[in-house]
Automatic annotation (TrEMBL):
<dbReference type="InterPro" id="IPR016167">
    <property type="entry name" value="FAD-bd_PCMH_sub1"/>
</dbReference>
<dbReference type="InterPro" id="IPR016170">
    <property type="entry name" value="Cytok_DH_C_sf"/>
</dbReference>
<dbReference type="InterPro" id="IPR006093">
    <property type="entry name" value="Oxy_OxRdtase_FAD_BS"/>
</dbReference>
<feature type="signal peptide">
    <location>
        <begin position="1"/>
        <end position="21"/>
    </location>
</feature>
<dbReference type="InterPro" id="IPR016166">
    <property type="entry name" value="FAD-bd_PCMH"/>
</dbReference>
<protein>
    <recommendedName>
        <fullName>cytokinin dehydrogenase</fullName>
        <ecNumber>1.5.99.12</ecNumber>
    </recommendedName>
</protein>
<comment type="subunit">
    <text>Monomer.</text>
</comment>
<dbReference type="InterPro" id="IPR036318">
    <property type="entry name" value="FAD-bd_PCMH-like_sf"/>
</dbReference>
<keyword id="KW-0285">Flavoprotein</keyword>
<keyword id="KW-0274">FAD</keyword>
<dbReference type="InterPro" id="IPR015345">
    <property type="entry name" value="Cytokinin_DH_FAD/cytokin-bd"/>
</dbReference>
<dbReference type="GO" id="GO:0009690">
    <property type="term" value="P:cytokinin metabolic process"/>
</dbReference>
<dbReference type="Pfam" id="PF09265">
    <property type="entry name" value="Cytokin-bind"/>
</dbReference>
<keyword id="KW-0732">Signal</keyword>
<dbReference type="Pfam" id="PF01565">
    <property type="entry name" value="FAD_binding_4"/>
</dbReference>
<dbReference type="InterPro" id="IPR006094">
    <property type="entry name" value="Oxid_FAD_bind_N"/>
</dbReference>
<keyword id="KW-0560">Oxidoreductase</keyword>
Length: 537
């Protein structure tokens, strides 16, 4: 049976390799995967290869030789060992659910590991680890497969103990390993830190094909290196996620500002409030255009019973800023949440008459972006290019960024930005400095996210939005803003070295040499030269 499978793989892969112009003879080590215990499947099906060659960004396309569908960490390790031991070498990239922006999870001429398969697939059928409590850790946790969707983790932990992860991304249909390889941020990060600050333990398949369990106490270099490490040191196959008791409901509030200094001062004050007193549980914000706001403000945020009256804005034009906050509560605490919200709002400086409130179940709030996705899919506006730009901007320069970008490059017309512009602050002390992620050298820094969509027929073409991204990056460099890219996309080795900075870059390169010495993994990031796909001659 194994020989039959190997022969079939030889025929199929040789045919595909000949088609794409690579050496006709495939690595012999790849064929041996037919003998892997556990039944991982190596596919050269055209639809699998085509899907693995694209991502959410829609900006890059590169076909792998094959797509590997593992059933567990052992299968992933076998594949990576084959690549590591290969005379010629071949690229291996883990792909969660295809939400990278610039081809980071692609493996041109190599093998893409489809992490949506594996134990996660079986877990959806019920064979999943239950949440547990650890006195040593001081809380609950759950072990999950690296390719698991966060929305599935949420539904599982809620249904088994009313628990939920502490830190989130705004969109839940992302893989655990994918967000942990970057950071994983949302409006809870000011209090709980990013998702990488809420992980107790990992299993990582290194670039040598070794399955290594790591934590703060065990193999800490790999643990902290992999968190925010852009997939450079290994493939995360298991994560032990910190849990907390989930609230039942959310009070969701938005308020508008015309004064940027007041907007950011209020945001920074809210994230400075300690856990012992009154505070909001989520703090975000976004930039909006005053023109057309009255027609567009009523979104899915509001119900027909909650009409929006914006007559107070009739004298405002140009850029406005929206503060977005939430307060979690249980149904028994409804009266006290009203008092807390009123007290917190009473200390803010938003425009009078622009506070809008809605109330909804906790899960519905966390899954809010998915509802917007379904509407966009129905209109054919989801699977379009997304030239996103995400920046961490130091708080000391955020006013300069506002003048140079929101009111400068964008000319006060956020409608020309091609999508939402998020802006909210975070506390650096909630980020572990031992992780690989790079943030500005200030205690408070902002995420500014240009979540662009190049919709066919729209005035904002892909080329125009990409040029605007470059203008923003050029402005930051010329003005000395000190911004760092989140979900970074650099093109040259020296740009990556500058991104990390001296000592951090040296550490990053040292960890690469230790855990992935042949630069097999995550070559789509473009950080380290991948193995050349050439013949042995």
């Amino acid at each position: 049976m194994a020989r039959c499978l190997a022969f079939m793989l030889l025929v199929l892969i040789s045919s595909l390799i000949s088609t794409v112009g690579l050496p006709v003879e495939p690595p012999a080590e790849l064929l041996q995967l037919g003998d892997v215990a556990g039944g991982g499947r190596l596919s050269v099906d055209a639809s699998d290869v085509r899907e693995a060659s694209r991502d959410f960004g829609g900006l890059a396309r590169a076909e792998p030789v094959a797509v590997f569908q593992p059933r567990g960490a052992g299968d992933v390790a076998a594949l990576v060992r084959a690549a590591y031991g290969s005379a010629r070498g071949f690229r291996v990239s883990a792909r969660g659910h295809g939400h990278s922006i610039s081809g980071q999870a692609q493996a041109p001429g190599g093998v893409v590991v489809d992490m949506s398969h594996g134990p996660g697939a079986a877990a959806r059928a019920g064979a999943r680890a239950l949440p547990a409590y650890s006195s040593a850790l001081g809380g609950h946790y759950v072990d999950v497969w690296g390719g698991e969707l966060w929305v599935d983790v949420l539904n599982w932990t809620l249904s088994h103990g009313g628990l939920a992860p502490r830190s989130w991304t705004d969109y839940l249909y992302l893989s655990v390993g994918g967000t942990l390889s970057n950071a994983g941020i949302s409006g809870q990060a000011f209090h709980h830190g990013p998702q990488i600050s809420n992980v107790y333990e990992l299993d990582v398949v290194t670039g040598k094909g070794e399955v290594v369990t790591c934590s703060e106490a065990q193999n800490p270099d790999l643990f902290f290196g992999a968190l925010g490490g852009l997939g450079q040191f290994g493939i995360i196959t298991r994560a032990r996620i910190a849990l907390e008791r989930a609230p039942q409901r959310v009070r969701w509030i938005r308020a508008l500002y015309s004064n940027f200094a007041e907007f950011t001062a209020d945001q920074e004050r809210l994230i400075s409030l300690g856990a012992g007193g009154r505070r909001f549980d989520y703090v975000e914000g976004f930039v909006v255009a005053a023109e057309g706001l009255i027609n567009n403000w009523r979104s899915s945020f509001f119900s027909p019973q909650n009409p929006v009256k914006l007559s107070s804005l009739k004298h405002h034009s140009g850029v406005l800023y929206c503060l977005e906050v939430t307060k979690n509560y249980d149904e028994d605490d409804a009266e006290s949440v009203d008092q807390d919200v009123d007290a917190l709002l009473g200390e803010l400086n938003f425009l009078p008459g622009t506070v809008f409130t809605t109330d909804l179940p906790y899960v519905d709030f966390l899954d809010r972006v998915h509802k917007a996705e379904l509407k966009l899919r129905a209109k054919g506006m989801w699977e379009v290019p997304h030239p996103w730009l995400n920046l961490f901007v130091p708080a000391s320069r955020i006013a300069d960024f506002d003048r140079g970008v929101f009111r400068g490059i964008l000319g006060g017309r956020t409608a020309g930005a091609g999508g939402p512009i998020l802006i909210y602050p975070m506390n650096k002390h909630k980020w572990d400095p031992r992780s690989s992620v790079v943030t500005p050298d200030e205690e408070v820094f902002y995420l500014v996210a240009f979540l662009r969509s190049a919709v066919p027929g729209a005035p904002e073409s892909l080329e125009a939005l990409s040029r605007q991204n470059q203008r923003i990056l050029d402005f930051c460099a010329e003005a000395g803003i000190g911004a760092k890219q989140y979900l970074p996309n650099h093109k040259a080795r020296h740009e990556w070295a500058e991104h990390f900075g001296g000592a951090r870059w040296e550490r990053f390169a040292r960890l690469k040499a230790e855990f992935d010495p042949r630069a097999i993994l995550a070559a789509g990031q473009g950080i380290f030269p991948p193995p050349a796909l050439v013949s042995d001659s």
